[in-house]
Amino acid sequence: MLDLDLAPSTKPLTIDGITLTAPIGGMLSEWARKWGSRIALVHGDDSMTFAALDRRVDRLAGALQNSGLKEGDRILIQMPNSIGLVTTLLAALRLGVTPIMAMPAQRLHDLSALVANAQPVAYFAARELHGFQYEVLARSLQQAHPCLRLIVLDGTDVPEDYLQLSALDAPFHPVQPPALTDLALLLLSGGTTGTPKLIPRTHADYAFTFLRSAEMAGVDEITIYLAILPGAHNFILSSPGILGVLSHGGRVVLANAASCDEIMPLIARESVTHIALVPPLLRLWIEARTWESSDLSSLRLLQIGGARVDAALVKQAQEVFGTTIQQVYGMAEGLICYTRLNDAQHVILNTQGRPMSQEDDIMIVDMDGHEVAPGETGELLTRGPYTISNYYKAAAQNAASFTAEGYYRTGDLVCQDADGNITVMGRIKEQINRAGEKIAAAEVEAALTRHPDIEEAVVVAAPDPHLGERTCAFLKGPSRTLPDLAIREFLRKNGMEAYKIPDQYAWITHWPQTAVGKLDRKKLVALAQKRDG
Ligand code: AMP
Ligand code: DBH
Question: Minimum mean pLDDT among 31-40, 69-78, 456-465: which range?
Fold first, then answer.
């Protein structure tokens, strides 16, 4: 017999005990039915209830429909933390349009590569953030990529030929909702190659991610989550982040400043209970508490993730903030590991927790791909119900990033204790993790060698007390007199994002080599450290 109530595309699906009945855009309507009059979002003096959010997302989806966007199209979203970011994302999902989630710090170089690959039809940005004008970026992007038919800027004083987000308002003509297994959104990977890779996440796998994550972080209706790192980051969007908190009736406070004298009073004012930080920010916050005296007693959980953290820093954080700490080791490709809220102290201090699903299938392997002995260090491979098995339109990279059995090669060196807890020991990927921002060495090397006076460039990560890792560029070339400042300026002028510009420069006459004649990056790291001290 035909089931008339359920269109085939919305058949429920269960992943590891969590039953999903609607795609993400439809889930919002359920949340609005349950918690309609509660506050969902706060940004500055603005706030929005769940019911108002649901209505706003409908009107915005209607306006997007009116502008000619349709199911299967892609849009590029590069918005700071704001109500506009959340409504745009959810409106796209409701319409079956695929958002590409770019970080506010990305510039022409990255965005151009993404647009060329994914061919989005629209670009959404703020007018301005921290003094940067996105209109200029929008015009350059549009000039280079005619696929971008529509530019929408959020904020006052929007140029006439661009649409303004707040003006986008039209009745929504409901569409056949996407299937749970359909592509929902494209996230960006830090990656190790020249251009950022796009990570295709489905409604089901992403909803599972934020629903299970909300359980892991003890989120409920009285949770007040403060998002200060970019909402386009998987950690902040779904671990449990913005979506995980909304899915449990909690409130999300949106902010963009990371400076302690703005954020700490905001925590007090909004009675924030949950917050996620990267280790370098945590260090700053601990230092700030020696002079900053806002009442932070509302805090219940401090999540730390995105990069390696010292046990000593975690301990200090416990003492200074008096809250439960949760270590989070995750990746936009899927797998998320958490320390559990009731884990023993030594687990919380020294490990990055264990996978959030029993269906996560992990394997730790040596250089030859053989599983290491228990407790030994090797590369982490992972597959499971919410981990991708290919990047979006990246055939060449897929072969290198996934095994024949469908495991994602994380490039992370880890070990696992008898209880299953994972500790991240290092990385085999040629990537710099600078304060949680992932930088591909290859990309910076390619940009450096575009300078006429630089023949060869090798970029490595050196340990840094403030950044976790800093970017060091080793250069070969005839002149060797190029001042650091000139190189920085060259990179900036060529559209490189500020956080990717190397922190340290050194000229070299011979590349150090390993026993088998390969470039010895370890030696370069040692050199970078020596020059520093
Ligand atoms: P991405 O693939 O760009 O989402 O970046 C994910 C990568 O960030 C992981 O593969 C790790 O290298 C790193 N990472 C994330 N969380 C942690 C953590 N808690 N400790 C150490 N490294 C981390
Ligand atoms: O670094 C990451 O990509 C990350 C860290 C913590 C992540 O994607 C996540 C949690 O979901």
Answer: 456-465
Q: Which residues contact 526 (CB under 8 A, 6 or more apart)?
A: none
pTM, whole model, 2 decimals?
0.88
Least confident of 11-20, 126-135, 181-190, 520-529: 520-529
Atom of ligand 2 lying closest to residue 238 CA = 11
CB 363 within 8 A of CB 409: no
Classify domain 435-532 by CATH number: 3.30.300.30
Q: What is the dihedral of CA 257, 315, 213, 439, to 10 degrees?
A: 60
Lowest mean pLDDT among 325-334, 335-344, 458-467, 508-517: 508-517
Q: Whose CA is nearest to atom 3 of ligand 1?
A: 190
Phi, psi of 102 (to 5 degrees): -95, 155
Burial of 202 (0-12, 13-18, 19+ CB in 10 A): buried
- The percent of residues in the chain predicted with pLDDT above 90, rounded, is 78
Q: Is the Cβ atom of 386 under 6 angstroms away from ligand 2?
A: no
Q: Is residue 193's pLDDT more than 70? A: no
User: Matching CATH topology for 54-196 and 435-532?
Assistant: no
Ligand index nearest the alpha carbon of residue 356: 2
Question: Tens digit of pLDDT for each residue in 132-150?
Answer: 999 999 999 999 999 999 9
Task: Kindly write down the DSSP assignment for every residue of 11-75, as one continuous string.
Answer: --EEETTEEE-S-HHHHHHHHHHHHTTSEEEEETTEEEEHHHHHHHHHHHHHHHHHTT--TT-EE
CATH architecture of 54-196: 3-Layer(aba) Sandwich (3.40)
Q: Where are the domains of the chain?
A: 54-196, 435-532
CA–CA gap between residue 185 and residue 424 (Å, rounded): 28
Q: Which residues contact 135 (CB under 8 A, 6 or more apart)?
A: 127, 153, 159, 162
Q: Which atom of ligand 2 is nearest to the CA of 239?
A: 11
In terms of Cβ atoms closer than 10 Å to its own Cβ (0-12, 13-18, 19+), residue 18 is middle
pLDDT single digits (tens) 9-52: 568 999 999 999 999 999 999 999 999 999 999 999 999 999 99
209 CB less than 6 Å from ligand 2? no
Checking phi first, is residue 109 left (phi over 0); if not, alpha (psi -120 to 50) or beta? Answer: alpha
Q: Which residues line ligand 1 (CB under 6 A)?
A: 189-190, 234, 305-308, 327-333, 352, 410, 412, 424, 427, 433, 438
Q: What is the mean pLDDT of residues 357-371?
A: 93
Q: Which residue bears the tokens 């699906």? A: 13
- Å from CA of 328 to ligand 1 middle: 9
